[in-house]
Amino acid sequence: MTGRVSTALSTAVVALIAVAVVWPGLLAPGDPTAVDPLSAFASPGPGHWLGADESGRDLWTRVVHGAAASVGIGAAATGIGVGAGLVLGLAAGLGPRWLDAAVGRVIEVLFALPTLVLALLLVAVQGAGVRSSVLAVGAATAPGYARILRARVRTVAASGYVEAARLEGHGRVRVVVRHVLPNTLWPLVSVATLGIGQAVVWVCALSFLGLGALPPSPEWGAMLNAGRLYLDSAWWLTVVPGTAITLTAAALTVLGRRIGRVSA
Amino acid sequence: MTGPVLDVRGLRVAFDRPVLRGVDLRIAPGECVAVVGGSGAGKSVLARALVGLEPSGSEHFRLLGRDARGFGARQWRSARGRDVGLVLQDALGSLDPLRTVGAEVAEAIAIRRPRDGSGRPDPRLPRARRDARVRELLTRVGLPEPELRARQRSGQLSGGMRQRALIAAALAAAPPLLIADEPTTALDATVAARVLGLLAGLRDAGTAILLISHDLAAVSRVADRVLVLDDGLVVESGTVAEVVGAPRHEVTRRLVAAARLPEGPGPVPEPGEPVLVGRGLRRQFPLPGGATVTAVDDVDVELRAGEALGLVGESGSGKTTLARLLLAADTPDAGTVELDGGPWSGAPESRRRARRSAIRWVPQDPLGSMDPRLTVGAVLRDAGARDVDALLRRVHLDPALAARRPRTLSGGQRQRVAIARALAAEPRVLVLDEPVSALDVQVQAAVLDLLVELRRETGVCLVLVSHDLGVIRRVCDRVLVMSRGRVVESGPVAEVFAAPREPLTRELLAARGLSIDGAAW
What we know:
The structure holds 2 protein chains of 2 kinds.
Chain A: H1 3-22, H2 24-27, H3 59-94, H4 97-112, H5 115-126, H6 130-157, H7 160-167, H8 172-208, H9 220-227, H10 236-263
Chain B: E1 6-14, E2 18-27, E3 32-36, H1 43-50, E4 60-63, E5 66-67, H2 73-79, E6 84-87, H3 91-94, H4 101-111, H5 127-140, H6 146-151, H7 159-170, E7 177-181, H8 189-204, E8 208-213, H9 216-220, E9 225-230, E10 233-239, H10 240-245, H11 250-259, E11 274-286, E12 292-304, E13 308-313, H12 319-327, E14 334-339, E15 342-343, H13 349-352, E16 359-362, H14 376-382, H15 388-394, H16 411-423, E17 429-433, H17 441-458, E18 461-466, H18 469-475, E19 478-483, E20 486-492, H19 493-498, H20 503-511
Parallel strand pairs in B: 3-8, 3-9, 6-7, 7-8, 13-18, 13-19, 16-17, 17-18
Antiparallel strand pairs in B: 1-2, 1-4, 4-5, 9-10, 11-12, 11-14, 14-15, 19-20
Helix pairs in contact in B: 4-5, 4-7, 5-7, 8-20, 11-17
């Protein structure tokens, strides 16, 4: 697939997901939790074009309304991760050497644990639920952003244009605001877009394990878990939310890489 | 072989517009042909087209007697390195930073095996004999201590050594034709002279050489014939003596003028009060392993109002470090710098900041010194310019460029913007670090003219760092010749040029294009 086609497709998918997050009623006017025993386990076809689950809830409606939970939580978690990463990364990159060393050691310790394990640990401490899964994924991704940011800040701070501005007599604060921050934060947009896709996967993983959003919430990971029992009789219960997760992560990844190439 | 190594007629290359519009070229074995021209003339495209890296059309294209017009990708791959070697300008970018120089050359030996009599490649050289061949090649290109160099990586070698290593790799299969694209542009004058000497030796040994350069002075020492390329056409050709002695085309005349050692700046005002004074300056840098290198060693400098001082020396002689000490971009380990009679190097940065408008810097890499997100206008306003249009006109640029980003400008325009930026706050001193070394000779001459004009009209003092004595002579009144961190010779430019005392000064002078003014024709 050429770059242009994949970019256009990903943009379309991301736009569709954005609509589903902001205004799910536009795509699926029904109620995602409305039970209809008559159409229980309806296979994909007329009436329920993606099928219905064990309680007869329409899967299309549930997947659309679940976007707010899954993608919304993923985006919020990334927001927290980027925010915490910003504070740590800028402190390490611009601060005194001892602070850089201290932050560096903390990041190394956090990096020693895989992100999902770290998130599980945090959920275990805080207890299950939507809020704690947002915080857990956010905190677990922060070290990665912090490290990227620190490296970038160091590169920019050592660049010729920062030295030129310094030799022009501009003060430290002005150089940071005018040159270091803009040139540091732009590349982060691409990394954060990639990160949302990854965060969605982790958020869904947590709720699949029953540690995030709980049924009957139409969260994709929770739907996967509920559908798991009927894997051999009603494949669409797992394939539909699974595809939604895959598509979201793939589209955000393609888009993030594209942004990265443009801003580079 | 008796026929020409390369015989091309009507070579055309077009991207979105025609770049080469019918170039004829013939090179015999043991002949060195130079292609010269300004930036954008199509020189590098010609080099790439001749090794099949650019799709081209031609009426006639014979490489070693074989018709190359029908060559596919596979045939070109087999021809490259074996029948024709290519040496690129960017010696650092062309070598893998993670591999040793020996591995680079050994790879070339393994891939590019010379053809035997029937045209088939020789059998692969056994690994054990490859090392010996690597050493032989590195010795042949004149790398000192080839055993040691073969084990080093490209980052550990100087620019001249890297260029030699690349030539060694290109020679692995002893190609009958070697194409060198600006092989000496990135090198300082004395090193460039040695690389050109190496090419001359190869030519005398029977290799046909196509030398591509913007610098007529450089190629005049090795080339037999010269082709002047302008806008994709050969506008003049002939032997070096013909072209240099009696240039007919306007482009050729400009190239010849730029290659001659330029005139001095003309009458200048008497030097006034000392503005920038350095006493006993010393700066050391730690080396890996605990040793230190002394980049600047006990140097005294004095710059008087209205004066232009040149700092000249080979790469690594400490001239840039000295310039940075004068700018207070770096702090000396010993000695002091005073600006306008007040402490400069010794004052804290918070005190210096307000006085930085008095001394400004024109860096070697103008693009890297400008924030890529900002427009030219924003860069100039940040530097303190009140009237951006007037400032751009001051350096002979179109005020419309203010809306552009530095990346979209040509090298000469970028350098002018860098000078405009340095002038924005109406400083008393400009420190220029190799301001023209990245520019082609015609643009160089224009930028140097601008510096002379600025001196005359604004009375700004200059400290000009360059490895090129021609640049110094065009702009400066006084010169310091540096070697290994020390000033080995100093005095008025005219005196130093007329009667150089030090061997280094003589070597630098000899390396700078004088062959063209010599008695050969």
